[in-house]
Specification:
- It is found in: Cell membrane.
- GO terms for molecular function: ABC-type transporter activity; ATP binding; ATP hydrolysis activity.
- It holds the Pfam family ABC_tran.
- 63% of the residues lie in helices and 11% in strands.
- It is an alpha/beta fold.
- It folds into 3 domains: 322 residues, Up-down Bundle (ABC transporter transmembrane region fold), CATH 1.20.1560; 165 residues, P-loop containing nucleotide triphosphate hydrolases (Rossmann fold); 72 residues, 3-Layer(aba) Sandwich (Rossmann fold), CATH 3.40.50.300.
- The chain has a 6-stranded mixed sheet, with helices on both faces. The chain has a 4-stranded antiparallel sheet with strand order 2-1-4-5, covered by helices on one side.
- β4 and β5 form a beta hairpin.
- α3 packs antiparallel against α4, α5 packs antiparallel against α6 and α6 runs parallel beside α9.
- The chain is elongated, with a radius of gyration of 34 Å.
- Bound molecules: adenosine-5'-triphosphate.
Amino acid sequence: MSQFKATFALIRRAPGWFALSALLQIMRSVFPLVPALVVSIAFDRLAEGSGLNTGMWVLFAVLIGAVLARVASLFGSVAVDGWTDSTTGGLLIRNTVARIFRRPGAEALPHSTGSTVNRLTTDSQTVADMMVSTMVVVGSTAQALFALGVMASVDVVLTVLVVVPVFAAGLLITFTSTQIKRHYARSREAAGEVSSMLREVFRAVQAIKLADGVDRVTDRVRELSETRRARTLKSRLFSQVMLGAVFNSTSGLGAGLVMLLAVSRLRDGTLTVGGIVLFVSYLVWITEFTTLFSQSLAEYKQAAVSMTRLDEVVDDGADLAALVAAPTSRSGVAAASRDSSPVGPLIQLSARQLTYRHPGSDRGIDGVDLDVRRGELVVVTGGVGAGKTTLLRVLIGALDRDAGTIEWNGVEVDRPADVLIPPRCAYTPQVPYLMTGSVRDNITAGADVTEADIERAAYLSVLDADLATMPDGLATRVGPRGTTLSGGQAQRVAAAQMLVRNPDLLVFDDISSALDVNTERELWHRLRADGARTCLAVSHREIALAQADRVMVLRDGKLVASGRYEDIRDSVPELSLPDPADLVDNLVAGQ
Ligand SMILES: Nc1ncnc2c1ncn2[C@@H]1O[C@H](COP(=O)(O)OP(=O)(O)OP(=O)(O)O)[C@@H](O)[C@H]1O
């Protein structure tokens, strides 16, 4: 989709509002032309010696009316501009975020987080600004046409002279559009690099201090900031100062020429005093229009760069049409998800020959079969790097499988990321991500649940005892990334978040890594006592393995054994050695 079509699509999503915006802009631009027209008529009447008499009051009333109408349209247009600005920026951000959510969760975005955030904020604002200034130019163009029409009725040749700088502006912008875009793209790129670097610095403050790298990092930030400053200056100098100066002097030159000619015409009687008054005052507006028009054209070119930058946030092959599309649902993704899902509570989840290779490596999983029936606890185990996390992430669609099939109740699931989500399935990763907010906010995560649901989820995830010791219980604040909680607490808050939605299938990744043996034992005990809970979990602990209906052992990405723990324990090396973590935990627990 071209930039023109994308801009038009942005207007088409709310034609009524944009028509109102155009009308208000036209009113606010055209009404200021009325006073000069009134004064010109008054001058001509005086010059003719006919006097003003009763007409004076009519002209005065017209003047007051024009001023009031302008003030009213000015207020209206400012309000509508605010709407255009916020809804345009909001739509671009929303569509881009929806596209991010539509891709496999674990796949990295093509650009750093800092650059992505910078694109979402600044580039969406550039496009929103362009939409507002386009509407301003619509009003300004109507003003210019009105002024030129009146001027042409007075003197055609002078009017043509007035128009020349406007065409010059258009031509100059067209010829320099490549440079405008290039300078702007380079300045945006530099701004993105500064944001990325700052984000990295904030994430690694401790590590930088420990490595005695504060000076080096500061120098690098300074260097990137300097590049950003130089490029932004160049872009602004080019698109605003240089082009502005050219247009202003061209318009000024044109205005001077028009005035010289006008004076000579006044002398030979072909132009009246009223005509001169009109030309002088309208020239100011035409000059302003030329500057506005040229700036707006430059902004339009810059917005092309910003649209492309926003489109490139996600490398899903979609084009500008996806960026400017009208949203179809609250999140822009949920509706599609629900439509494609097989219905019915879980009876059996099966996967056959699941295969995934991590990009640029030969590691992953290879031809793994898996079955989880309603009410079962299936535990995946294996050595470090055996492929356990990869298996779970491929299953829930966080990684796009290279081969294999997944079936929910015998119905093939093409896009598991759209189907294996609450209320069917919920997942707790090895290192959970908690948001800034209260423990309650993190457990509910926006779900419409009751207090009893929250308490039950906290009990099942063995968080109840911790909550009792926290200063504000469920209202206790969790810092950025959940850093005020211990690893085990964070993992249990994430588990409670999963449980509060009461999904059919609970998927836990490596619950043993952050829980001591007693807590893990209690967790499995409570979950198993809670009825037909279906769980797929990664664990190394005997307490989980021994309770499992089936243990799956992975080695180098392949399934090497599957069955009840007591049946396969002696023949599988991964199961015969005691887990060192268990030994330490048991020692600490005095067992
Ligand atoms: N993003 C990645 N890129 C390349 N290789 C990866 C990536 N993630 C994992 N791997 C490799 O794939 C293999 C399986 O990793 P995975 O995390 O699934 O193992 P795991 O059994 O969960 O390990 P652990 O018990 O340490 O969590 C490992 O060899 C790992 O190094």
